[in-house]
Amino acid sequence: MKQVVFNETGMPLDVLKMEEAEMPTPKPHEVRIRVTARNINPSDIMFIRGMYGITPRLPSSAGFEAAGVVETADAENKIPVGTRVIFTAIGTWKEYVCVPAVMVIPTPAGISDEVACQAFVNPLTAYGMIEKSGLKAGEWLLVTAGASAFGKLVIQLATKKGIKVACTVRRDEQKALLEGLGANLVVNTEKEKLQKVIMEKTDGGVSVVFDAVGGTLGARALASLKAGGRMMVFGLLSLENIPLNSGLLIFKDLKVEGFWLTTWMESLSNEERNTAFKTVFGMLLSQQMKVDVDAVYPLEQFAEAIQAYETGGRNGKIILAS
Questions:
Q1: Per the database record, which ranges form the Enoyl reductase (ER) domain (predicted)?
Q2: Range of the domain at 229
């Protein structure tokens, strides 16, 4: 089978290569999946660069999230042959993957592979962060990198709960797109002063910030919180840590915390986890929540796919298909 691997960490285009490998043999509790679609997430790139929370065991394949079809069932036949599934694993940029049967989710009928392969990480992170934030209808949420796949999902989920959403962009043409999804306020940080606009338009600041960027923008978002506010950090797109203002934290009683989907999922009961899956997949199936696809590339064209991923101004995910 074909797989995309790296033998050392570094910039993806420098270290990734395609090679032939033996077909993996599943253990009794595992299913073997023919992978049909994988989306490229920021976490995939950071993993390849050695900057993610999980350290790669080299040589390693890339990718964490995918969709596919079961070609070999587990010993108990929990997931029968032919079942379309959604799953996460370390290293999905290959043609076949073996995954514990308990870790795969049957793909709801009516959801395409291109949507299914991005139905886990971003939608569940958006759902989980909104749930954990405790935000109520009428309160303000600020989302940095609002035009990202995650940002657009948060806008859709939050507005359905009556939460007011402000978000940052770097291009004016992105404003109409996000306003169409329900954003109440969109700030172009290349032209406008974030804190000034937020303080004027939200009656003194937002209650919660979801920050994916870090760096200077993260600091400005932190300063946009009202007294008693809370920043939830889940990404570092700028690759720069947030320069925290100690006086701001002290005198405005602000809180800063991290969010990682894996940790949050592990904290849930089976009932809470099932509710999360049912809610997210139900909204995707009914198109109450939409995810966008910018382009689809065959696995062999992973380099072209990465170049497309790195192109600014995208409004959808880059998919690697088989």
A1: 10-320
A2: 122-263
